[in-house]
Specification:
The protein is of the alpha/beta class. It has two domains: about 210 residues, P-loop containing nucleotide triphosphate hydrolases (Rossmann fold), CATH 3.40.50; about 70 residues, Alpha-Beta Plaits (2-Layer Sandwich). Helices cover about 30% and strands about 30% of the residues. It is built from ten helices and 13 strands. The strands form three sheets. Strands 5-6-7-3-8-9 form a six-stranded mixed sheet, with helices on both faces. Strands 11-12-10-13 form a four-stranded antiparallel sheet. Strand 6, helix 5 and strand 7 form a beta-alpha-beta unit. The longest helix has 17 residues.
Length: about 300
């Protein structure tokens, strides 16, 4: 079985609010997936339902081929680490690790001990008295050392400083290489995790906007900088995601990779070709529905600022 997570027609409604709207999603096993989107897009709700911490209003979820809700066969194979993880009042880090060791059959205690030293987690401080960064470190250590077959990280590392976040990325990637499993990372720091993720899922307003391999997604857009007429000629009928004018020079981001002839035209017309980062692309795609058209562009094209 190559599918680890299968979500079919899932909706979640809270009174008058629809957090998820008929979401269907299939995530491959032994792959690191990035779940990306704006605040309130539905990321946490989706992960909460997938990990059986919430129930869908409609639809079906299967993890490793089984329904996770109240299922003791599959729940020990799922680890869900979130930013505001809760622990009992007097718990130390070692207590949290001991509880995780009982919960996850593939738990590696030596790895947890090593990571605790690297993240400088205090041994004698109660978790609720730790700094936000130290509490985040406890969460990511559990996520890595659990070696659960399906692991969800819901921005649990937001309290970490840049050095500690890089340590998290490095240690997760190293352990994943030796012990492959399915990992889903929700993050606002898109460019920081771009080197980690193999597949991108973008959720916007409770609906799936994009689901595709990251390398394929990178080729979907390009930025052209040059004289307006030359840029317009090369852009052709492609959808415009963003456009800025600087006198006679324009900077235009369009959807669609350039073919060989267009790349030759870029050189001949002295147009600069700039790659679009994953973060820039996702920002443009999620914003394009909300901003009125720029009057300087083709009226059939949308422009997002």
């Amino acid at each position: 079985m190559r599918t680890a997570i299968e979500i079919t027609g899932v909706s979640r409604r809270y009174r008058s609010t629809t957090a998820l709207d008929n979401v269907s999603l299939s995530l491959e096993k032994d792959t690191i997936h990035g779940l990306l989107g704006r605040n309130g897009a539905g990321k946490t709700t989706l992960m909460s339902i997938a990990t059986a911490q919430d129930w869908p209003s409609a639809g079906e979820v299967k993890i490793l081929g089984m329904r996770p809700h109240e299922n003791e066969q599959v729940l020990p194979q799922i680890c869900f680490v979130r930013e505001e993880q809760r622990y009992i009042d007097d718990a130390l880090a070692r207590h949290a690790f001991a509880a995780a060791a009982r919960a996850f059959p593939r738990w590696d205690d030596d790895l947890a001990t090593s990571l605790a030293r690297e993240f400088r987690v205090p041994e004698k401080t109660r978790i609720k008295k730790m700094s936000r960064g130290q509490r985040s470190a406890v969460g990511v250590i559990i996520g890595i050392a659990s070696r659960a077959e399906v692991t969800f990280f819901d921005e649990p590392y937001m309290g970490l400083d840049a050095v500690a976040r890089q340590l998290f990325y490095d240690r997760l990637l190293a352990d994943y290489a030796e012990h492959p499993r399915t990992v889903v990372i929700s993050s606002h720091l898109i460019d920081e995790i771009a080197h980690l993720i193999e597949n991108v899922v973008v959720i916007d307003q409770g609906k799936i906007l994009i689901q595709e391999p990251v390398e394929q997604l990178r080729d979907r857009a390009v930025t052209l900088v040059g004289r307006a007429d030359a840029v317009a000629e090369i852009a052709g009928t492609r959808e415009v995601l963003h456009q800025e004018s600087m006198g006679r020079i324009v900077r235009t981001t369009v959807l669609g990779a350039l073919d060989d002839a267009e790349r030759r035209a870029v050189k001949e017309r002295e147009v600069e070709l700039i790659p679009v980062s994953l973060q820039q692309l996702i920002v443009r795609l999620t914003a394009r529905e909300e901003v009125p058209m720029n009057s300087t562009t083709n009226p059939t094209q949308e422009v997002a600022r």
